[in-house]
Amino acid sequence: MAFIKQFGAYLPPRIVNNDEMGAKVGCAADWIVSVSGIEQRRFADSETVVDLATSAAQDCLARANVAAGDLGMILLASSSSEQQFPGPAVIVASRLGLHSVPCLDIPMASAGSLFGMVLASRLAETYGNILVIGAEKMSSVILREPLERGVAILFGDGAGACLIGLETGPARIIDSVIESDGTFAEDLRLQFDQPLEMNGRTVILQASRKIPRAIQTILEKNGRHAKDVDTFLMHQANQNLTVRVAQALGVAEEKFYSNIHKYGNTSSASMLIAASEWWHSSGFKPGLLVCFATFGAGFHWGAMLAEGVA
Amino acid sequence: MDRRPKILEIIRQVSRKNVDPQPDESLFDSGLLDSFALPDMLSALETAFSIKIPDSDLNPRKFDSVEQIETYLENHS
Q1: Would you say A106 and A49 are in contact if contact means Cβ atoms under 8 Å apart?
Q2: Measured between alpha carbons, how far is residue B42 from residues A212, A216, B24, B49, B58 in Å?
Q3: Nearest by CB to B55, which of A204, A206, A244?
Q4: Using N-to-C axis directions, what is the helix angle for A49-64 and A270-281, rounded to 10°?
Q5: Considering only CB atoms, which chain A residues are within 8 Å of B59?
Q6: Distance (Å, rounded) from C-alpha A171 to C-alpha A165?
Q7: Residues of chain A above pLDDT 70, percent
Q8: Of A44, A86, A197, A244, which one is least surrounded by beta carbons within 10 A?
Q9: What is the arrangement of strands in the sheet containing A289-296, beginning at the earlier edge strand?
Q10: What is the ipTM of this complex?
């Protein structure tokens, strides 16, 4: 059995509001809010994916009071890494002072942090403490010419981290489900040195079906119901999508923790950033049930259930 | 079976517009449906015509006009 021991996050300091973004892509600030719920996002100017990831990792480890030397593995999800190889995971490990711990990159957009958490929950038995990081510098992607208004307004930069291990922690991971289907791989993709391509209609259509279904699957498998879940921590893709998922599950949208208005869609970092903010504002209590859920390019999607322990 | 009246009713319902689109008119390019109205329209079609649209068919290009919707329903009813 694996436990969630801590979350951490790092957001670059530069705030890009909708006035600035709207002027860049030719749209009104209010329109951005209406189509996404996003009011501002953060952009990392000189910082890299590795910089963002390292800061989130350090925040998580400090909050957990765990030394980097006590880590047995690092998993890092990012779709915006600056170089093809080596991926950022091993460089982050080096910056943390780790020189023999196995590191694995998950080059997956949006869904990567949940896939990392699922892998960590399974691998903890072999590797002990596993640090899962989601780090994205989406500004380097969306600002490529030609700017696509419907894409550029959505994304931001940031990083989140989660420490998973076998020894007891604040939350027990109950179960998880992850799935993948490449049928619509061309509807959301980033080819080398190209602008991000997104067929928003396909993405929303698929996500609005697959996310609730994954959540229902994991709940039914464990004898729970959507109404039993205290908090949903979902990939912050678009506030309108979050509302749809809540409606599909028949629960109040207030149960879905949301910070997309502040940070935009930070792809594979978003769920961990949201989890970190939620954890440090309220956090797990004994018996409290949390459902993580995500969906991203591929498509890859999934859900995880965790419960607070005494 | 003439499905068009029901299809048009669903389009009006999910778009919240009292419209009468041409059979070959793009529901998206004309602005009648946005990304978030599309899932609602497909759910309404499933209910109204007692069908289940599989994920592999959840492709906006298959439901971009009244004619395309009719064709899909004809092939899957």
Answers
A1: no
A2: 16, 20, 18, 10, 9
A3: A206
A4: 30
A5: 184, 202, 205
A6: 11
A7: 100
A8: A86
A9: A103-106, A71-77, A129-137, A157-165, A3-10, A171-180, A300-308, A289-296, A231-234
A10: 0.90
Q: CB–CB of B35 and A210 under 8 A?
A: no
The pair phi, psi for residue A228, each rounded to 5°, is -75, -20
ω before A13 within 30° of 0 (cis)?
no
Q: Distances in Å between the alpha carbon of B28 and those of A183, A276, B11, B34, B41? A: 22, 38, 11, 6, 12
Give SS3 for A265: strand
Position A237, amino acid: A
Average model confidence (pLDDT) for chain B?
92
Cα A203–Cα A265–Cα A44 angle in degrees, nearest 5: 140
Share of chain B residues as helix, strand and coil, in percent rounded to the nearest 5 = 55, 0, 45
Residue A262: which H helix or E strand, with range? helix A260-263
State the pLDDT at residue B26.
Answer: 94
Task: Identify the band that residue A293 occupies on the pLDDT scale cut at 50, 70 and 90.
Answer: very high
- Whether residue A209 and residue B39 make contact (CB cut-off 8 A), yes or no, is yes
* Cα–Cα separations (whole angstroms), residue A82 to A48, A136, B51: 7, 10, 46
Look at residue A1 and tell me whether its pLDDT is greater than 90.
no
Residue pLDDT, tens place only, A65-93: 999 999 999 999 999 999 999 999 999 99
Question: Nearest CB to B60: which of A202, A209, A244?
Answer: A202
Query: Chain B: residue nearest A182 by CA?
Result: B56
Which of A87, A177, A72, A81 lies closest to A132, judged by CA? A72
pLDDT 10s digits, A241-275 = 999 999 999 999 999 999 999 999 999 999 999 99
B32-59 per-position pLDDT tens digit: 898 889 999 999 999 999 999 999 999 9
CB neighbour burial string for A144-175, b if at least 16 within 10 angstroms, e if fewer: beeebbebbbbbbbbbbbbbbbbeebbbbbbb
Decide if B58 and A199 are in contact by the 8 Å CB cutoff. Answer: no
Q: Is the pLDDT of residue B31 over 90?
A: no
pLDDT at position A145 is 85
Contact A201 B28 (CB under 8 A): yes
How far apart are the C-alpha atoms of A165 and A162, rounded to whole Å?
10
Q: Is A262 on the interface with B (CB under 8 A)?
A: no
